[in-house]
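Record type: monomer structure entry
Structure origin: computed from sequence
Chain ID: A
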Amino acid sequence: MDVTVSATAGALLGLLSEKPMTGWELVEEARSRVGNFWTIQHSQAYRELAALERDGLSASTKEDVRGRRRYRITDAGRDAYLEWVASTPKDENVRLPFLLTVAFAADIPPARFAELIDDQRRRHTERLEQYVRRRDELADDDSPHGGGRRATLELGIGYERATLAWLDELPAHLGIDLSGSPHES
């Protein structure tokens, strides 16, 4: 059976190639590895898992009285995964909600804009700290996927540092003086 899988399905198959997991575990594992760069919602994961099972790329068993299913990759799923992971990725589709705010910054009072920048700075600082902690936790991971996990975190760390620097420069780019704002740090 020749089945083309989506990026989300490919990522789920990649995680299943490491070990069997429930849908919930798959989403949580995806979030811990690439969550801020590739999001997978629970509902989306379960739809993809149903399709993967229907197409013979995964199989599941009920594990407990709650009806949780543990999924595992099949041989056909491993073949589809290996084909997907070696294929040329599509172009990025970056969606940053704060950029919409920046695009219309002229319509926002400076004090409010300062609050929004402070909020973004807090969020990106927290994420940077989270990524650095996770990198430290994975420093000794010599598993086959350890290098990929660390490389993904390095991109996240670089992104968060670049975003924080950009936030510092943002008022000057927009010609907004926030120096009198109580929120300027």
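Annotation 1: The mean pLDDT is 89.
Annotation 2: DSSP finds seven helices and three strands in the chain.
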